[in-house]
Amino acid sequence: MNKLFTLTVTLLLSATSLFAQDDNSLIGRAKGAAHNCLQDFNSNQWNITANVNDISICFVDGTIKEVTFIATPKLSGDIYPLVRIMPIVIASVQFDCNGNIISEACY
Q1: Contact 62/96 with Cβ under 8 angstroms?
Q2: How does 23-48 read in b/e, with b if 16+ C-beta sit within 10 Å?
Q3: 69 with 105: CB under 8 angstroms?
Q4: Residue 4 banded pLDDT, cuts 50, 70, 90
Q5: What is the pLDDT of residues 18-27, one digit of tens each?
Q6: What stretches of 9-87 adopt beta strand conformation (E)?
Q7: Distance, CA of 3 to CA of 1 (rounded, Å)
Q8: For residue 65, how many other CB atoms are within 10 A of its CB?
Q9: What is the pTM of this model?
Q10: Which end of the chain is less crowded, N or C, counting CB atoms within 10 A of the terminal residue's CB?
């Protein structure tokens, strides 16, 4: 029983790290594609985060993915608890079933 549990945990951790590496690759490629959209937010005043989402399932294998870039202003510790700032979606990049970029949008 202990060996089965160890094997299961090892497989789950391996799959998780494989997906994380795939997401990091997509985010890197999406940053290159959305470079013009992100330029105005590349400063010490903004935090930019990226989210990878599955949009739809492909016919044979895989999914169509979208990377969304979100900016939030950096606020000092004194102001942050008093002000609630909504994040701003600044760009999105979609990838087809083969990992090719099919669209890019600036907002």
Answers
A1: no
A2: eeebbebbbebbeebbeebeeeeeeb
A3: no
A4: low
A5: 344 478 889 9
A6: 46-57, 63-73
A7: 5
A8: 20
A9: 0.71
A10: N
Reply yes or no on whether the pLDDT at 9 is more than 80: no
Kindly report, residue by residue over 51-107, the tens digit of the pLDDT. Answer: 999 999 988 888 899 999 999 888 766 655 555 677 889 999 999 988 899 999 998
Task: Tell me how far CA of residue 15 lies from CA of 6, 10, 39, 90, in angstroms.
Answer: 14, 9, 34, 30
Structure tokens at 23: 């997401």
Q: Phi and psi (nearest 5°) for 11?
A: -65, -40
Q: Is the CB of residue 38 less than 8 Å from the CB of residue 92?
A: no
Q: What distance in Å separates the CA atoms of residue 62 and residue 107, rounded to the nearest whole number?
A: 27
Strand, helix or coil for residue 43: coil
